[in-house]
Specification:
The complex is a heterodimer of chains A (81) and B (207). With 81 residues, chain A is of the alpha+beta class. In chain A, 12% of the residues lie in helices and 23% in strands. Chain B contains five helices and eleven strands. Classes of the chains: A alpha+beta (81), B alpha+beta (207). Chains A and B meet through strand 3 and strand 5 of A and helix 1, strand 4 and strand 8 of B.
Chain lengths: 81, 207
């Protein structure tokens, strides 16, 4: 099943259109996954920790799983200016 | 297919996650215990996270007998450790050091590795390693039964001659050939490299 492009956030829609990939709905989170990707994780933000100026780290729960079975992954993300 | 992870046992989750998230870098951690025995062991739930402060993170589980790993005990006791990076030249020694030896046995002796002194931390680094980080514990987080994350602040970087250009600080692709962890006893090289866009199609299949 494909997602209705018009319901997507314009920035996300632009990224998918530019790259030529197909957004498909997920089960637990509100964000689309990439149909062409070999595997996808639906993730919930569990915790954010400030490391230093300009960077935040969401969650120490690397590859941990919540009670509802959602995989929680993390990676550095740049703060919006 | 879709898998809800509450329906999957922790052992199967482990298999899924380490099989899908590949290749992973390897932290080959060297420490010395309170009796002076030099220890080293590889961990592949590992990565660098930040340059300011300069941090890396390693995830530890318990030994197969349920006890704390020797490496983690040494980190808890001293608040310091050394992360050595693994290349093709040290791959076999790294894999040999992953076996669970008794605490009084040194993986350095078992695998023929040479302990070299560090500048800041009291633990040895592996002289044969392509690069080593002297680390001080920045934060520890217990994330579940038998799982602990250790964040390390990287204080000193050591590298074999030729790996880092002293002026530009660029890493030499020809001098540094790290391997990656896949799953079980399976690893990969980093020999096939390409620039995007378009570079992948130009790789010859024989490479």
């Amino acid at each position: 099943m494909d997602i209705d492009f018009q319901t997507l956030d314009p920035d996300i829609r632009y990224e998918f259109e530019k790259a030529g990939f197909t957004p498909v709905p997920t089960t637990r989170v509100k964000h689309p996954m990439i149909k062409e990707s070999p595997a996808s994780f639906e993730c919930l933000l569990r915790q954010r920790t400030e490391l230093g100026p300009g960077f935040q780290l969401p969650g120490p729960q690397l590859c941990a799983t919540r009670d509802d079975g959602v995989v929680v992954a993390y990676g550095p993300e740049r703060l919006a200016p | 297919m879709e898998l809800k992870l509450t329906d999957v046992s922790p052992v199967e989750r482990y298999k899924l996650l380490i099989g899908l998230v590949i290749p992973r870098p390897i932290a080959w951690i060297s420490t010395v215990n309170e009796s002076g025995v030099n220890n080293c062991a590889p961990f592949s739930f590992f990565n660098v996270l930040s340059e300011e402060p300069p941090l890396c993170v390693t995830s530890f589980n318990v030994r197969s007998d349920g006890l704390t790993k020797h490496t983690l005990k040494n980190i808890h006791r001293t608040g310091e450790y050394v992360v050595n990076l693994v290349d093709e030249a040290t791959a076999d020694a790294m894999h040999l050091s992953s076996y669970e030896y008794p605490e009084e046995d040194s993986e350095f002796e078992k695998t023929g590795l040479t302990p070299a002194p560090c500048s800041v931390v009291k633990h040895p680094r592996i002289a044969e390693a392509a690069a080593s980080f002297e680390c001080r514990v920045w934060k520890r987080l217990e994330i579940g039964p038998g799982r602990e994350l250790v964040f390390g602040e990287i204080l000193i970087v050591h590298a074999r001659e030729g790996v880092i250009d002293p002026t530009s600080k660029r890493i030499s692709e020809s001098s540094y050939q790290p391997i990656g962890r896949l799953f079980a006893a399976r690893y990969c090289t980093t020999r096939q490299r390409f620039d995007l866009p378009g570079g992948l199609a130009k790789l010859s299949p024989e490479n």
